[in-house]
Amino acid sequence: MKNTLLILASAALLFSSCEKWLNPDLENLKTIEQMHTDARYAQGFLTTAYRTIPGYYDNSDVATDDAVTNQRSHPYLQIATGSWTPTFNPTSVWGQSYGAMQYLNIFLENSNLVDWAEDPEAAQLFNIRMRGEAFGLRALYIYYLLRNHGGINASGELMGVPLMTQSMPSTADFNVPRASFMECINQIYMDLDSADAYLPMQYNNVATAAQIPEHLRKYSQDVSAYNRVMGEYSRQLFDGLISKAFRARTALLAASPYFQHTSNNSDWATAANAAASVINFKGGISGLPNNGHTYYDNRNEIDNLSNGTNPPEMIWREVIQPNNSDQELQNLPPSLFGNALVNPTQNLVDAFPMANGYPINHSENSGGYNAATPYADRDPRLNLYIIYNGSTAGVSNRQILTGSASGTADAINARETSSRTGYYMRKRLRADVNLDPVNTVRRNRYYPRVRYTEIYLSYAEAANEAWGPDGTGGNAYSAYDVIKAIRQRAGVGATNNDPYLEECRADKDKMRALIRNERRLELCFESFRFWDLRRWKMPLTESATGMDINGSNYQPIPVEGRTFQNHMYYGPIPFSEVLKYSNLQQNTGWE
C-alpha cells in the first residue's frame, strides 16, 4: 500500500552511461507541481492506473472443477492442491490496486490545476472526462480488492479493505484498519456516481449541440470541442456504460451468499436493477447479441473493428492485438503445435445439457443421453467450447484423438503438453490461426474486459432471487425471459420449446440451479468459476475428472483433487501487510 510515487522519472530520459542511469540529473525528475503545466505528464498518472487493471483471462478456472492445467508450476494449480497461504497468494491484487489508487488520488487532487488545453471549453471537458475516468477506475480497484480480500475477521465482523481516497505521502501513517464491507460498497457507489456525473454513456462523435448528453452541456455546447474530448478518439477509456457494468458487478457481489451478514444491507433487487440498467441500454431481451457466445472467433467482426468500436457483445475490451497467436500457442493440442495449458474436465462436459435442454442426468432420462455416444445430440456450445475425442480442430480440420492408446501426441499425458483430462479448450481460440512453423498464420484478437452476456446472466440470478423466475420487479423481463433468450441463442431446446426450462420456471430453486449452470457454461474459461463458487458458498472440493476413450471403451479417470478449507471462501490479506501493520486484521482462518 505504501507506494507514494511522488517523484517520477521522465519517460523521455536518455541515458549515456551507467553512472547517469543510476544517478539521473535532477532536471530529469518531475514533481507533482509540474503536473499543472504539463498536461501529458498529468495524464500519465491516469494512464498508469489503466495498465494494472486485472486481466480478463487469469486461468483461475484450473483451480476449480471446470479445468486443470498441465503446467505443474502453475500458481492456480498450487492453490487448488493445498499451497494457498497468506504468503503464497496468486489471487492477490493488493499491491497493484493500492499503487493504482495512489496515482488516481494524486491525479484527482491536482487535475483542476492542470492546463489541459488552450481552448477553455476543451480544457474543462478534458478535466471532467479524466476526473470521471479516475473516479471510475478507483471504484474498479476497490471492487477487485473487495472481491479478492474481503471477508470475516476473528471477531466475526464482515470486513472490507482499507479505503484510500486521498494520496499518501511517505510520512503518512499507513497503519490503518480495514473499512467495513458496507463502507467499501458505499465508496464504490459514490465513486461511480461521480464518474456518471462527468462521463457520457459512450464516447461517440456528435453532429449538433443537441446530441451532447444533457448533463454535459453545462460544460460546453461546442460540437468541435466535445468531439475532440468525448468523441470516438476516447473509446475504450472508462465511460458511463462501464460504470453501470461495475455497479452491477458490485451489487451482485454484495448480495451473494458469502457476503451475507447482519451488517450488510445489500439485496438482490438492487443487484437486479443495476444489471437491468445496462440491459435496458442494450435494448432489453432482444438486445442480447446473436453471436455473443462466440465472440472470440467472430472473425469478420474482429478483423473489421476500427476507430475503437466494440463488437455487439462487448461493453469494454482491450485494444486490438494484430497478428497474434498467444491463446492458440498456449491452448491448442500438441498435434496443432500448442501447449494445451488449460484442460477442460469431465465435470464441465457433464454440465452441458442435451440439445433438447434436459440435463444428461435428468431423473427420467428425458434428454435421451446415451453413455455409449456421450457427445451426440448435446448442447451446441459443447463443441464450440471444448475439443473432445474425435473432434476436428485447426485450419486443416485435423481429427483430435485423446485416448491413451491412440498413439498420438494428443493422447492423455502423452507429452508434458498433452491433456491430462482427455479434453482440450476450444473457447478463446481463433480457428483460422495456424501454428505450423512451415506456414504460420496469426490473426487479430482482443481481450474482453466486460461482456453483455455476463450482465444478462447477473440479472437473471438476482431477479430470480428477488422476485422468482417470472417476477420482473417493474422491469420489462424476468429471469426466465433472460435464460430463455440465452438458451435459444445457443440452440438449446430449439426443436421442443425447451420443456426443462418450463419445468424450472415453476420452481425458484430449480431455476437457481439452471441459472448457475448457464453462467458456468456461457462464461467457462473466462475466470468466473473460481469466484462464483465462492460467492455462492458452493463446495470447493469436487475433484477434477477426465475421460479416457479408446474405441468404444469410455473410462472415467480421476485427475486432480481439490484441497480447500472452509475459510478459503475468502482470500487472505497479504501476510507482509499484516506483519507490518498491527491495525490490519486478517480474515479468519488465515492467521
UniProtKB/TrEMBL annotation:
Arranged from A to Z, the UniProt key words for this protein are: Cell outer membrane, Membrane, Signal
Name under which the protein is recorded:
RagB/SusD family nutrient uptake outer membrane protein
Which residues belong to any copy of the RagB/SusD domain? 313-590
Query: What are the residue boundaries of the SusD-like N-terminal domain, all occurrences included?
Result: 62-205
Q: Which SUPFAM superfamilies match?
A: TPR-like (SSF48452)
**UniProt keyword Lipid metabolism, yes or no:** no
Q: Which domain of life is it from?
A: Bacteria
Keyword Membrane in the entry? The reply is yes
Instruction: Provide the organism lineage as a comma list.
Output: Bacteria, Pseudomonadati, Bacteroidota, Sphingobacteriia, Sphingobacteriales
Family under the similarity heading: Belongs to the SusD family.
Q: Which Pfam families match?
A: SusD-like_3, SusD_RagB
InterPro entries per record: SusD-like_N (IPR033985), SusD_RagB_dom (IPR012944), TPR-like_helical_dom_sf (IPR011990)
Subcellular compartments = Cell outer membrane
Organism this protein belongs to: Sphingobacterium populi
